[in-house]
Design goal:
Shape: globular
Helix content: 25-40%
Number of domains: 1
Largest sheet: 8 strands, mixed
Oligomer: single chain
Amino acid sequence: MPLSTLSGDLYSESLRITQHVNIIIPDKSDDFWSTIDDEVRVLYLLHGLGANADEWTRFSMIEAYAKIYDLAVVMPDGNRSFYENAPSGPRYLEWVSQELPAIIHAWFNLPSDREHTFIAGESMGGYGALSIGLENPGAYGGIVALSPVTDPTILASDFSELFFGAAEQAAVFGSQGPSKADSIVAKAEQSVKQNGAGAIPRIIQMVGADDPFAPHVRSTAEELTSLGIENSYSSWPGRHDFLFWNEAIERSIRMLCEVE
């Protein structure tokens, strides 16, 4: 398969706007020795708050990892949406989980089955990966959340400077802003109720020990375990930045591909 690192814009009916997407398709070159070289898997990789679709290609070695582990990596713009379906606006969860995968499968003939499809992200993107995976458990073989936002009410309270005030919170989460129903634990409880714990994809969470999100990620992992959801939690020295996430995404990919 020839190498393609594609960057383009396409119209989204879910968002009613032209949206930017980056796509990496692995090749057969000798730039890196492939650890896995049998069948392509697809990883939807989501960016954090304040970033865009270029974030992972700018600050990580994701192109190298795509080659080494035979991954097609799809990186869409999520803007400041938390990858939610806005109450009266763009439907980002629908865009990432339904519309975009249909386009990727049709245009590039890439796999769309659960076994070969994963979703991951960092910070806001980690929240999006968890939300989308829990909403659509039959679509993904694994979910990776790196230093994720796990409860938007905590973010709105303790990190309010990240928002454009209550108006932006209301635009994303509803007129009253984020509630406990928007937490990952609440979404997991709802998914277990609807689908059963065994139907939910394996969840991998990693967070730096010096990250202020670490206590919340750890407690969320404990709650997922109590719900019977297969999940893992890992932490080592690091902060809320790409020095940590670059290492964490490779560790996660190796776990997803069962290399370790």
